[in-house]
């Protein structure tokens, strides 16, 4: 009895789940029948390649197949029996003999094929691609099929990414703090690099490769020139070496004033010859250490960052100077369009467009302009950025934020795929109907081949990588959508749940329900009906619609909601800031008319009276209250839904999410109460009957202070 108890304790400990394995768990396939058919079809594995990437592939297959099939896996280099999983590039002898030219002509360099076939008259499964990285992606896809228990007896998969550069942006500082990071410290241990190689670097690379991410910007957009000094470049080179076999390139942020700060020049003027020379030499130095260095991401003349405008030059002049420095080495420049200036007397919404639209066609061909999904700043809901579709001659990189700066940080469960999709699926009408944002980004609309998408990463040193376990789903979803933006949010959630928890259908259903409604709920209790920028000062934690009288008006809340005794909302029609004029006429028309403007964007574009009649028949005031209360109610249901799966997953992850959902509910109530009470001071109307009364006063909420909120 004692012995049994002891064994039991050990087993439980071994099964302890801290989330660190992400979606690459490879536990034994639970469905016996499926396991049996997989064991028949995959008896042995032929990994036909010798590169570093192939050694990663072999490790992954060994690890994955031994776990999933629950046996010591054997490798071969022959086709003697049925049941060989053959993995090799399309130029290998085996693939050449298979006459796959036509199928191969449909995939891109990163794409792959997975086929059930016969080789030397023996049943086999083939994973092939034009490049080593393509094969790696195919292998991860194949393992995913097993993990999610999909039929593998008759495979005919052909897959290619729609976007070429699929990047994470780390807003990580050299002291290991992470701007807007809520999962501990930065993964990059700069101090101990380059000699100390943390296992996490490899795990990070594996995780990214498994979802097709092929680049990582290591440093914060609020850049530190120090990263460009020789000693730090050696550290960067060490990371690049780890990531290379996984098909991941490294990129850095370039501080525009680096020539002054670390180069001892008097100026960083992009037209100055010494400055040009400095960057050229810096590029040479970098490429000597990192021959496949990706390039630079630059935040210039925004929020206090230096840039070409400090010298009377425009963004194109700045970007082109850097582009010329790294062009000989094949590098690119990602120049951010997130620019706005408190001293420009114009709606912040309009500023990026005003600065960048006239520069269309003026950038070097290795420059991409990186545009946030919306014109303000990663708010819980924003209409798409008017620059999409407006710069047909310039490749635009989509910038999403995976880290949930404005969506509950790491305490709220918010599945972001529906938000990413909402933007990608928006119609810019730039070339008539169906000129979707996704087609601008993937290059289809304007025939572009240099295409990119970036996600501001949510990873950190927390054991589970992302702080909130469900933050992993956002990292995962970003990668999957970067590969193919046509995947649906449901499909990606379904996959992630099966990989992360299990294939239990009831569990998948419950968790999927929770995920699919989470973002809409969050919008309801934070910023319903197009409201935006209502969050706490500086740390952006919690509600603070009362923020005003700060040195920068465009960082206050009152600038955006404009609540007064008459009503609420930002008038961006022709009677207001006329930001709408920046959209193509069909979009303009739709958003400017109260009849056709989707209510989810209403107060983004219109200032309306508290008594304005909504489609539901309620007044605007009532509708605002309804959303805030409904968001909280739905969250309460989410908590009950989560409880349903208690016995279906391990205790550790169950409790982790359960505790966070409680915090989320408390914080949703806080958002609701603070916002409703604050707006009530203007509307002077009662909270509709039947709604619970806030248990604290507005004054109480206004006095809450969080000097140590994370992520600053
Ligand atoms: C804002 C963040 C700030 C970033 C900025 C940016 O609050 O920390 O530096 O975006 O994207 O949302 O540059």
User: What sort of overall outline do the alpha carbons produce when their principal axes are compared?
Assistant: globular
CATH architecture call of the largest domain: Alpha-Beta Barrel
- Give the count of helical stretches: 23
Profile the largest sheet.
Answer: 8 strands, parallel, barrel
Count the strands?
A: 15
What strand line-up does the widest sheet have? 6-7-8-9-10-11-12-13
Ligand names: beta-D-glucopyranuronic acid
What is the CATH superfamily of the largest domain?
Glycosidases
State Rg.
26 Å
Any idea of the CATH topology of the largest domain? TIM Barrel
Distance between the termini: 53 Å
Low-confidence stretches: 4-14
In quaternary terms, these chains amount to: single chain
Report the structural category.
Answer: alpha/beta
> CATH class of the largest domain, please?
Alpha Beta
Total individual domains: 3
- The proportion of residues in beta strands is 5-15%
Notes on the protein architecture:
- This protein is an alpha/beta fold and 712 residues long.
- It folds into 3 domains: 21-159, Chitobiase, domain 2; 165-495, Glycosidases (TIM Barrel); 524-570 and 607-702, Alpha-glucuronidase, C-terminal domain (Alpha-d-glucuronidase, C-terminal Domain), CATH 3.90.1330.10.
- The protein contains 23 helices and 15 strands.
- It has helices at residues 2-14, 32-41, 52-69, 93-96, 101-104, 132-147, 199-210, 230-243, 258-261, 273-289, 315-326, 348-356, 417-424, 437-441, 471-483, 489-500, 505-526, 558-561, 585-592, 602-605, 620-643, 651-683, 698-703; strands spanning 44-48, 84-89, 112-119, 122-129, 156-159, 165-169, 215-217, 249-253, 295-298, 332-336, 367-372, 396-401, 452-456, 567-568, 608-609.
- The strands form 3 sheets. Strands 6-7-8-9-10-11-12-13 form an 8-stranded parallel beta barrel.
- Helix 7 links the parallel strand 6 and strand 7 (215-217).
- Helix 10 packs across helix 11 (315-326) and helix 16 crosses helix 17.
- The radius of gyration is 26 Å and the shape is globular.
- The termini are far apart.
- The model is unreliable at 4-14 (pLDDT under 50).
- Bound molecules: beta-D-glucopyranuronic acid.
- Residues 179-180, 221-222, 299, 303, 338, 377-378, 405 line the site of beta-D-glucopyranuronic acid.
